[in-house]
Each structure stands twice: as structure tokens, then as C-alpha cells.
Amino acid sequence: QQQVKQSPQSLIVQKGGISIINCAYENTAFDYFPWYQQFPGKGPALLIAIRPDVSEKKEGRFTISFNKSAKQFSLHIMDSQPGDSATYFCAASHNAGNMLTFGGGTRLMVKP
Amino acid sequence: EPEVTQTPSHQVTQMGQEVILRCVPISNHLYFYWYRQILGQKVEFLVSFYNNEISEKSEIFDDQFSVERPDGSNFTLKIRSTKLEDSAMYFCASSEIQSTDTQYFGPGTRLTVL
Q1: Is the N-terminal amide bond of A82 cis, ω within 30° of 0?
Q2: Strand positions, DSSP E, B51-105
Q3: Which residues in chain B touch residue A53, judged by CB atoms under 8 angstroms apart?
Q4: Which of A50, A90, A91 is nearest to A67 (CA)?
Q5: How close B72 comes to chain A (CA, Å)?
Q6: Cis previous bond, B8, omega within 30
Q7: Quick check: A43 and B106 CB within 8 A?
């Protein structure tokens, strides 16, 4: 019940295209859903996060869409750039604990 | 911009040896965490720490692991008797207030157990 499932495992997008990464969770107690970006040899860095009281959050080219009833959330990267090439992790947590539960990660490659 | 720092960047040890991984969280942060990432796999929670106590720990965090805040700046993870399967990237993270606040991750320590 603590799992967060992420898909796809890898994604290749042309420069300027839209990258879409999906996550699904089971634990309805989760109330915080961040996305982290990780470059090789670096730690995960927070990209954008959403709470279940809104269905969408946009920051620049990055948008999170959240579907509470389906227990799914997704990251959309508009106008994808080669510099966006990285591994993206969705995660979830709830107030009862401090731990972030991470999805399996998506390796994104944006081709120039 | 303040950041979480970790030392060493790479630690090589023999199986059965003790290792201590060190972290300096962001100075005004109160919550501290350790995560690990086995090569090619997802990031896994180990332990959270607040007010000099463990707040929560995962099943991975067994008796061979311990955490400590020995002074006002450092936060350490000790593995008493390392196993081959402890080889992983270990990330320290910190957050300013409570559990749903942003966790900022350090660059990690790559632990290799031979």
C-alpha cells in the first residue's frame, strides 16, 4: 500500500516536444506529491510539488496534473530541451510520517 | 543558496567494517533524513530524525544502522558491519519544518563494500 508506481521507465522525446511521466499510488493518506529531477552523480532536486486540494499546478514549462479519484498524478514537460535529460522521480508522503516514498524513476532523453 | 553537503563523496570499505557517512544539513533545518539508492534502482527511505530522536525508520534500517547528531551541524549515518548489499548511494536530506515541507537532498556518498 506504500508503493508508488511510475511509468514509463525510459522516454525519448524530440526537442520541443512534450514529455509525460505518470505515477499512481495506493495509500489515500498521501497528501504531498513532489517530483524530483536527478542528474548523473547528483542528488535528487525538487522540481515541483502538488497537494491534493488542486488538480493542476504549473511552474514554467513543468506542470503536474493530479487526479485524486484515480489516485494518479503526472508530470508534463512542455517544449522539452536537451538540458531536461535526466532521471525524474515522483514521490509521495503523508503527515503521519516523514518519509518520502519514491516511484521507480523515468530516464528522460531529449534529442536535439 | 544554502545546500546540504555530504562527505566523503566515495567510500570504499571491506565487508564487515564499520563506516560513518557524514552530512551537514542546511543550517536552519530541523528535520533530517537518510535515503539510499542502489545503482539503477529507486530512492529508498531509511530514517528520519528530529529533536535528537528517530522519528521514523524503514525496515531497511535494522540494528546495524544508527544515526547521530554529534554536534550542532553534523548528522551521521553509521553502518556497524557492512555487507556487500549495503553498496549504494546514500543521500542525506533536510527540511525546515514538518514532514510535507520540501526535503533538500545532498549530493550523496557512494559506498562500495568489497
Answers
A1: no
A2: 53-57, 65-68, 75-79, 88-95, 104-105
A3: none
A4: A50
A5: 21
A6: yes
A7: yes
Q: Which residue of B has its CA nearest to A48?
A: B102
- Cβ(A80)–Cβ(A18) under 8 Å? yes
Q: Is A52 on the interface with B (CB under 8 A)?
A: no
Residues of chain A in contact with residue B53, where contact means CB-CB under 8 angstroms, are none
pLDDT by residue (tens digit) across B69-89? 988 789 999 999 999 999 999
**Cβ contact B55:A98 at 8 Å:** yes
pLDDT tens readout for residues A45-55: 999 999 888 99
Measured distance CA(B90)–CA(A106) in Å, rounded: 20
Q: How far is CA B83 from CA A62, B14, B86, in A?
A: 40, 8, 5
Q: What angle do CA A109, A110, A111 make, to 5 degrees?
A: 110
